[in-house]
Structures are given as C-alpha cells and as structure tokens.
Amino acid sequence: MSTARLNITIPESVNNDIIYYAKELNQKKSHIITSALDMYFDYLDLKVAEERLDEPTVPMDDFFKELGVDVRD
User: Nearest CA to 48 among 36, 40, 37?
Assistant: First the structure.
C-alpha cells in the first residue's frame, strides 16, 4: 500500500488520545489515525446513503428510456 505524508494541525487533546492509545495498543500513531479515519469514512458513507434516500427517484422505465434501452417483454 502506498502512503502519503501529511502535515496537519489537531487539538492537543486529540493528540494526547492518539498517543495514549498508540502506547496502550503498542501501535504506531499513524495506524491509530488511519483506523479511526477508516471507521469515520464508513460512517460518512452511511450518512450519504441515508441522505440520498430522501432524493427524488426516477421511475425505472424512464431511466431505461433515457439510456435508449428497450425493456419491453
């Protein structure tokens, strides 16, 4: 897996939490941060999906017609 180096600013309390868990779990801080972000992105995916449920939908027949696909029996 390729990696990217980031220079970010975070609240000191968050940094302290990262340091604490990295020591407790004997893992690198970057692993703790990556894991946390992966979980957060999963949460965001769910939120985006929930918001999309409220968007108007297109009837299936109109969708295929717009694509030029004939779905008649």
Answer: 40
Q: Answer whether 0.70 is exceeded by the pTM.
A: no
Contact 64, 71 (CB under 8 A): yes
pLDDT per residue over 45-61, tens digit each?
999 998 888 877 778 88
Alpha-helical segments (H) within 1-73: 12-25, 29-53, 60-67
For the chain, the distance separating the N- and C-terminal CA atoms, rounded to the nearest angstrom, is 48
3 state SS of 12: helix
Nearest to 21 by CA among 10, 13, 9, 29: 29
